[in-house]
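User: I've been trying to design a sequence by hand for this structure and keep getting stuck. Would you show me what you'd pick, starting by listing the structure so we're on the same page?

Assistant: Good idea, let's start from the same input. This is the structure you sent:
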């Protein structure tokens, strides 16, 4: 990877972690409640990831490339100057903006009313997200 690619990747990495870009278990208006429901927060992140993954995998290679090009232009970056991971971040960012996902409170209410409805969509990532919490307890 050239220094230009590393620089572009670094800029995109920093930009992809800003607030308001989709579900984030550690920031946003619900962050005060994040400590009270770490398993539900992790399941919510897992659910949102699964939804985005399903959409991403349903796209043709050509459409993914178009999305990357559009998002690169929007961020004033040349897609040809970035690496694969940065391209995936660009596509994921654009999908987060276009795929309708419930906010945490709505998802939590619906999940608690009917967990089986959502459990089939979870990838299992939530278990990894909560391992650190279990390790801290004892």
């Amino acid at each position: 990877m050239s220094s230009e690619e590393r620089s572009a990747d670094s800029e995109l990495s920093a930009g992809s972690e800003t607030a308001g870009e989709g579900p984030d278990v550690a920031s946003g208006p619900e962050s005060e409640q994040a400590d009270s429901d770490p398993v539900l927060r992790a399941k919510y992140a897992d659910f949102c990831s699964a939804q985005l993954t399903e959409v991403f995998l349903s796209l043709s290679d050509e459409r993914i490339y178009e999305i990357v090009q559009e998002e690169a232009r929007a961020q004033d970056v040349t897609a040809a100057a970035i690496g694969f991971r940065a391209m995936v971040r660009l596509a994921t960012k654009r999908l987060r903006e276009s795929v309708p996902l419930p906010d945490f409170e709505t998802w939590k209410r619906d999940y608690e009313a009917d967990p089986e409805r959502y459990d089939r969509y979870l990838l299992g990532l939530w278990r990894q997200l909560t391992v650190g919490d279990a390790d801290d307890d004892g």
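That's my pick for every position. To get oriented when you compare it with your attempt: The chain has one domain: 3-12+37-137. The chain has a mean pLDDT of 74.
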